[in-house]
Amino acid sequence: MFPTEPAAVNNGFGALLKNRGFILLWIGQLVSQLADKVFFLMLVDLVVDKNSSYLPPLGVAKESMYSILMVAFTIPAVLFGSAGGVFVDRLPKKLIMVGSDILRGLLTIGLAFLPRDFYILFLITFGVSSVTQFFAPAEQAAIPLLVRRENLIAANALFTSTMMSALIVGFLLGDPLLSLAETGMAKEYGRELVVALLYMLSAVMMLPIHFRDKKSPSEVLSDRIDLWADFKEGLRYLKKNRLVLNAMLQITVLYCVFAALMVLALPLAEKFGLQGKQSGRFIAAVGIGIVIGAGILGHWADKTHHKPLPLMGFLGMALILALVPFTNTQVIALGFCILLGVSGSLIGVPMQTLIQQQTPLIMHGKVFGFQNHAVNIALSAPLAITGWLNQEFGLRTVLIAMSLIVAIVGVWAWQNTRRVLQDVI
């Protein structure tokens, strides 16, 4: 029932490791992801540290500075998520990714030489987040240019696992790395220099990649970019291709659940008598589960082709969400979080592969731009309301309600996909 092309004989990660261009893209993505996480921690360090030279503006409490920066990081994701995809279809993928890394590196190092003013920090944060909206869809559109169609599920599994690994490693090593950067001769600008070097390293790793871009530089320069027309063209395509739209909706729901869990990790930690800063272990456990699930899918993709993977993933997540509030042991709760991540990978990896396989190359940027936009909104909305729901109704009620919603969405998406495939047949 899994509507993607079956894997070839040379499936799994072995074929990918022989693909030099893909390996360079993969390493570049990993370094860029690490830079994003360390940049995020650097912002926290710059405004939360008692000895910080960034002072709050008039009328703004010091405790609110971090929240304001998070707004600066979120707004571009909502404003430019789809626009970035339009440029991806018009410009060379390598130009966008390498250029994005260089721009983010320059903006970050600029903090070291600009006045220590909170408004400047706000603008730099806004700028870095805005540039990231162009990097993300270009990265997704680049994978099918480097990998055979039958190996896409293994490629997406590897990218998903490394993305979560970067999340875990970035938050674990980011703090000691920034602390180390403050020592020695670069004490005043060490943190900014480390983040900038990571972005630049990502750009250097991707420079040797040769993409099969069909347009010549002269054609690129002569193209007229009409954002509104391209935006409407992308909408028309998604309305027409219900299989891709259905896959995108499933990925969006998945990220909604993960965003809600980031908020609920704090009351879950309190349930087991842990401190607030220890809530990250539950998020890390979910990340470990995603890595495990992605690894299984990537290595045994040929054996999972005919399985209803997304349905299994949604029902597995629903069952785990219903069981977690009745768990009284931290170890069991962490185990459930790992299984939750494994279930999530059964949704994310195959649905991302489906989108790449079913979307023509000329529409990749627009479609991945829409996906990036939808995911950003999916991450923002639960962050805004989940905390309030927990205060009003309690952790157990919220998790059980999430369980029911996830189960309903999973069954609906499975039935909808079956109807679409029957119509095609």
TrEMBL record:
Signal peptide: none annotated. Residues 243-425 form the Major facilitator superfamily (MFS) profile domain. It comes from the Bacteria. InterPro entries: MFS (IPR011701), MFS_dom (IPR020846), MFS_trans_sf (IPR036259). The chain crosses the membrane at residues 21-44, 64-88, 119-139, 151-173, 193-211, 243-269, 281-301, 308-326, 332-355, 395-414. Gene3D superfamilies: MFS general substrate transporter like domains. Coiled coil: none annotated. The lineage of its organism: Bacteria, Bacillati, Cyanobacteriota, Cyanophyceae, Nostocales. GO terms for cellular component: plasma membrane. It is a multi-pass membrane protein. This is MFS transporter. GO terms for molecular function: transmembrane transporter activity.
